[in-house]
């Protein structure tokens, strides 16, 4: 396929076709910078306004406990995902330049993720409790890279072979429907707060089905929308979460302490404290005040 491309045919402006990815990167960079600056200025201009925001109006992204998530966090995630994608899709692993570039990318990714908590909190929390976020980010990166090395395809729901071999409308409709269904399951799993199930489920699709039909985590958006008026179901979700998370939290704390330089098995009080911090019931959706017009 590559040999059939005529690389002598240039893009408008005399730019060689081989530089199309670089052109797209530059255009995306300029447009994103312009749009980001516009949105940030809009948010800053309306920061002191008490008027209720419409769903389409830009606003700051906040996490649990009022944590403000800056757009640099989104940028780091996109850079990491795109970098791993380009390394994974390298056409020839024997090209020394690709191999050297992948080594430097791995080094840079490790240095960035080791300070991910600083980027997230914009504060030096390396040795603090919030610094554990960096270790979590490294765990995610290692898990994704490991699945890719083992040959798992994150787009396994999209059967490229059928798409290429069978050009009938019915076959392609089935492939697209399966892709849409799988992505919908992934969204449900993430809304239920099961990040690891959703992440690994993108490689192993049956996990998405299991995660979608099981109870939501009690603090997740799904529980906030559907469990706050059903106390028995919320109680089941809390009890189940505490039972399932206890061994995970024990292993997580031990490994995080080992990586941080202080390996020790966490005592029950520390585990209970972490469980109390992580496991909580989602607050009920906020009801917008109803204003009556005076005639």
UniProtKB/TrEMBL annotation:
Species assigned in the record: Mycolicibacterium chubuense (strain NBB4) (Mycobacterium chubuense)
Domain of life from the UniProt record: Bacteria
Name of the protein: Integral membrane protein
Translocase found in the keyword field: no
Transmembrane segments: 20-40, 69-91, 103-123, 135-157, 169-191, 198-216
Keywords, in A-Z order: Membrane, Transmembrane, Transmembrane helix
Residues forming coiled coils: none
